[in-house]
User: Fold these one by one.
Assistant:
Number 1:
Amino acid sequence: MSASLFDPIKLGAIEAPNRIIMAPLTRGRAGPGFVPNELALEYYRQRASAGLIISEATGISQEGLGWPSAPGLWTDAQVEGWKPVTDAVHAAGGRIVAQLWHMGRLVHSVFNDGKQPVSASATKGVAARIRRSPPRPRGSAPAAAR
Ligand SMILES: Cc1cc2nc3c(=O)[nH]c(=O)nc-3n(C[C@H](O)[C@H](O)[C@H](O)COP(=O)(O)O)c2cc1C
């Protein structure tokens, strides 16, 4: 007999009571310092009945985050901002994991003190322009040190 969406599933260490996995969705609602806030708490708490929530893409460093008001996970304030969010999901009976994000060559230098970001390989990004930012010069991002 085939499983239904409402059957439990084990995903590594996670015992999910159903197979509904919430896809990561960038919201752009974090506060100053890329710190998640009450909006994230309410958003994820409301969705705790999913078998597993995958968080919105979450920056791992200033240099790797190039999205306005996306949350991060590299400062103490960001970690403290996430704790009430994950606590609220757990209190509502849910499970949540973080999607870690480094945007590589696509990070706009405006997020990075004017410096070009590093990338996995020294390849050229698209000529990107983000809202409220100056155009970024075309060029290769330097490859990250290995
Ligand atoms: C507004 C929006 C934000 C998204 N943010 C992320 C994200 O943070 N991380 C990610 O891996 N995918 C992100 N995605 C992709 C979705 O998770 C999903 O894979 C995509 O929408 C394809 O699913 P669909 O065919 O059901 O729409 C985003 C999609 C949308 C529409």
Number 2:
Amino acid sequence: MISCFPAVWWALPRDGWAIDSTMQPKPEANGQADRPWRPLGRFGSPGYYWRKAREWGFRLGYDRARAARIEAEKFAELGFDRERALVELDGILRDAGKPPFRDAGGMASVHWLLFACLRNEWAPRRILEIGTYDGETAALLSRLFPASEIATVDLPESDPILRQTYNREGEAGIAKFLEAQVRNTSAANITLHKVNSFFVPMTVRGLFDLTWVDGGHLTAVQL
Ligand SMILES: C[S@@+](CC[C@H](N)C(=O)[O-])C[C@H]1O[C@@H](n2cnc3c(N)ncnc32)[C@H](O)[C@@H]1O
């Protein structure tokens, strides 16, 4: 019984089983309302357990020390002083009342450190971020590059994809999200555009020196 379990698991459909994580849009968000709706949410989908198993497989096989070494080598190859940037980044975060940098905390990832490195190399005049989310990265960019003009783009709150992803469901979820987004994008050098990134060329004019593309990268097709 136990020995055939992985085979059964493997055979189960892994994609398109409606809700399989809080990050997944509900079917109607993708114009796929004919897909089955599972009241148990992600826990009712075999795909969810499949993905969790794979995730844990990757975690168990993940060599943190090796990954850190490779990352340090890549920064060195690019001629960046990673250690200096880390100290500076932590200083900026501390001044903003935030905890020190962790490459897996909330929306933070190695891109924050990369921006801190870039800051020591050159000053972008205009920065474009696609996918604002709650504006944490836009706020950081504004502190790292106070003389830059930062345009950041996310979906309007009327968009079903926004409403049904990243825990923004329900009135409480959306209110909390919007409060953070307004607060984080309130710096004078940030302009938030609530528009699908598809319309960026028509909405956000001009050229940009630095673009951070971090919009929809869930399983559903988004830009
Ligand atoms: C990973 S989050 C962005 C995180 C943010 N850039 C950061 O570093 O903190 C992705 C965001 O992209 C937005 N998004 C998804 N599809 C989009 C689209 N077509 N146009 C604009 N924004 C989109 C989502 O609403 C979500 O807020």
Number 3:
Amino acid sequence: MDDGSASKSQASSGRFTNKREGYLEWPDYFMAIAFLSAQRSKDPRTQVGACIVNEEKKIVGIGYNGMPNGCSDDLMPWAREADSILDTKQLYVCHAELNAVLNKNSADVKNCTIYVALFPCNECAKVVIQSSIKEVVYYSDKYKDRPAFMAAKRMFDQAGVTYRQYQPSKKKIVIDFSLIEAMSDCVIADMDSLKINAPTVDSQPDSTS
Ligand SMILES: [Zn+2]
């Protein structure tokens, strides 16, 4: 009996013959990777990630904010304010955008799009412009009234780098490792269950006659 839902009957019959619905769209995928890489950050206050994507929708660089290579996360300061600026993180931390560009696995990032959680600061705007990235997709612009971010926009506007706020198609993306165990069928075909209409030995012409 037809229940009026193709996907429902497909699921209930155990035959998944049509394309899955609700899969991750490209922009959500790239922004989610930026957010996921931010989870690697040791900064106790601000975790930011960046993901650089080329014109073929291939990821060519990922980064998050952190201390320079060889500078110990345990010895360097993480405070935003201190009696001396030498004891604040500002002078040391490499921002996500810089790390993503420097981590690139391609010759360059010309005409790429960078997905970032926060609108780039002025220093990162320089990196974006000088590396010929053409577009910035950001999630939050919460510091837009600060000079560093106003300066970033000023440079982007003159250099022709476009920027737009990311509009997520879903509010949350959950990664549940255990889901793979619960999936009902195997990616590898069970050869015993396959029926292949290949000619049998008996049906082939008898070469002896
Ligand atoms: Zn920055």
Number 4:
Amino acid sequence: MSPTNRRSFLATGAALAAVPTVAALAGQASAATSTDLPDYAPIPPSALGPAVNSQGYYVGRIEKNLYWVTDGTYQSAFLTTREGVVLFDAPPTIGHNLQRAIDEIASANGVSNRVTHLVYSHHHADHLGASSLFGKNVVRIGHAETRKLLARDNDPARPVPDITFEKSHTLRVGGERVELAWHGTNHTPDNVYIHLPDHKTLMLVDVLLPGWVPFDSFNLNEDVPGSIAAPAKAMSYPWKHFVGGHIGRLGSRQDMVVYQQYVDDIIANVKKALAAVDPTPFFVKYGNNSWAAVKEYQAAQVAYASAPVIKKYTGVLAAADVYTASTTFIILESLRLDLGVDSQVHA
Ligand SMILES: [Zn+2]
């Protein structure tokens, strides 16, 4: 922090008034009723997908014999072939509705409804927890690291993949082609790009959630620089339809462009905050309680950086006012710790 950037105590104090105090938070400890809960901006209609049926799912065609299923929060996809069905992820929230959706499409088209292959996007239980519903006679395909992580987790709901790959794998079933590739760590160490070139579709889970800002704390991404780099890798593929694994609709290339701009805007505003927010008053106020000083200083940086982004994207991306601040904090820490932004060497 250069002294020329320091602001007066008065100005920073005014900015801090917006940060809730410990006393105010403690007052919320009792059970909330819905009238006590905070209000958020309305969801833009563009964020919403088709309505689910009475059983709680929607199934629709993506392109030709490729379909997608959603419960409004999670997504899966499947490819019907002359030899059986290839399923992509098995979220437990969709659960038995996966087979119902497949049955519905298979009977309408007179093709097999038997799932013969199950492709794993990454090891997380919220996308694979219904894998075991498909039994032992299904060929499961995933990254080598997915196999390691699932062996570690030892969850009977998520059997380890039978076929693994390190860099890439072409899956051919019933005359259809699926290109699987690993391009470095991002959301998790094992998250892969699932490309169906003959169906103009890319599936990449937990990166772009079309129409919405990322889930809490930048989608809980384990590798923040790797996750920031993922959209450009996704855009290097030819595709028209995008399956993001979450929320109620498919994505487009334009959705990816908006998402990249959103992340770039957070990065640019974090850099501004690192230069603009004066740490002095926090350390003066909290003395030897270093954590209190750092906590409040960083909260002020996050508020400074996220406010213009929330303003810009409210009405554009759903829940910009809900999760932009927590994502900003994660990106702030990554810029400091991974990239060394604002790092100062003691004289
Ligand atoms: Zn995940």
